[in-house]
Amino acid sequence: MIPRYTRPEMAAIWSPEQKFRIWFEIEAAALDAMAEIGTVPAEAAQTVRERGEAAVFDIDRIDAIERETKHDVIAFLTHLAELVGPDARFVHQGLTSSDILDTCFSVQLVRAADLLTADVDRLLAALKARAHEYKMTVCIGRSHAIHAEPTTFGLKLAQAYAEFVRARRRLHAAREEVATAALSGAVGTFANVDPRVERHVARALGLHPEPISTQVIPRDRHAMYFATLGVIASSVERVATEVRHLQRTEVREVEEFFSAGQKGSSAMPHKRNPVLSENLTGLARLVRAAVTPALENVALWHERDISHSSVERVIGPDATIGLDFALVRLAGMIEKLVVYPEAMQANLDRLGGLVHSQRVLLALTQAGVSREDAYALVQRNAMKVWEEDGDFLASLTSDPEVAAALSEADLVALFDLGYHLKHVDDIFHRVFGIDG
């Protein structure tokens, strides 16, 4: 991911320095376990840990060795031996490269999930605060992008809050799915490494031992993880798309915060564009682009191949970095979102009261009119208002067939906006619990 969309906290997880440090921690923890069970000298394990922890890994030197060996783990081990000395001969005993690579990848994905969870928490806090702020701010609800019935802007935000509560729960499950360590040696049989070593390393790194690895950790775990990131990215896009639609000039019910000195267009000085939400739509596409390759990584040949490796070197950093940036950007956008209640009311009134058509329909049926006839009566008056920009209430009261069933007072009562708000508190209680 390019620096423009990269936050330093997430980038650090995927840096070469951090990767090699995790590799060392895996090797050192494995040595500690081997020393504890007596398969390597305790003094050697201590020397490797002390010298490795004090060392600064030379990325250029490791890259130079890899250019010759064509093997990244061997390049690292060769450099580690240069730093540690003769006791490095005990490092990596009975292990294979995937033991280090896969366990490191698990650590990185878990740490990335923790950062993403913190991002979701910030977004949830923003959505909750703004939902309560606009809990009873009436606006028009739309289906097929056409005016439907009244809702509130607070309910729109509460819906997003509930969606990201689910996102947080899925993210936690995805984190647990990939939080496994595998140090089982070639083809996963533990022939040359004691299973106790794997248990020790897993515990040291905050992971669980993989129940059965075939030299690699099964990739269905990773597929689930990246699929979860894709679902969360789609939720980001849904909220961003709503903001984009509501900021259209013809609607203008909300607007992204426009700071002092900000410019909207190089050609048109009047422009205030929804650039943040448009950017979020694009970032969501990038995150979702990781899902299909992750699914295709599940089917490896026999006990292992490395067709997954190149994919994960790209999608691991890019998907987590992209979603991290998107979640933080969305949280900031919600925190500063400018809301125009007057425009919401004006849009609500644009169709001359047509948004109350269902109430009139139901009232007519309750007054004894068949549903088919009631629908025809309401639609006849509604279409006249739609085409002539008239007043729906006035049209109904002047219609003798409607008046035969409903008095003017009955009709006026049916146009009460408060009717649509009577269960808002109940919905908020469902979403926010006692805080609703």
- Quaternary class: single chain
The helix count comes to: 19
**Total strand segments:** 6
Spatial order of strands in the largest sheet: 1-2
Task: Assess the beta-strand content as a share of residues.
Answer: under 5%
What coarse outline follows from CA principal-axis ratios?
A: elongated
Helix proportion:
55-70%
Low-confidence stretches: none
The end-to-end distance, rounded to whole angstroms, is 39 Å
Question: Could you spell the SSE succession in H and E letters?
Answer: HHHHHHEEHEHEHEHHHEHHHHHHH
The biggest beta sheet reads:
2 strands, antiparallel
Write the layout of secondary structure elements.
Elements: H1 8-13, H2 16-37, H3 42-54, H4 59-69, H5 72-84, H6 97-133, E1 138-143, E2 146-152, H7 153-178, E3 180-181, H8 195-205, E4 208-209, H9 220-247, E5 254-255, H10 275-288, H11 291-296, H12 307-336, E6 338-339, H13 341-349, H14 357-366, H15 371-388, H16 392-397, H17 400-403, H18 408-413, H19 424-432
Parallel strand pairs: 3-4
Antiparallel strand pairs: 1-2, 5-6
Write up what this structure looks like.
This protein has 436 residues and is mainly α. The chain is built from 19 helices and six strands. The strands form three sheets. Strands 1-2 form a two-stranded antiparallel sheet. A two-stranded parallel sheet has the order 3-4. Strand 1 (138-143) and strand 2 form a beta hairpin. Helix 6 runs antiparallel to helix 7 (153-178), helix 7 (153-178) runs antiparallel to helix 9 and helix 14 runs antiparallel to helix 15 (371-388). The longest helix is centred in the first third of the chain and has 37 residues, at 97-133. The protein is elongated.
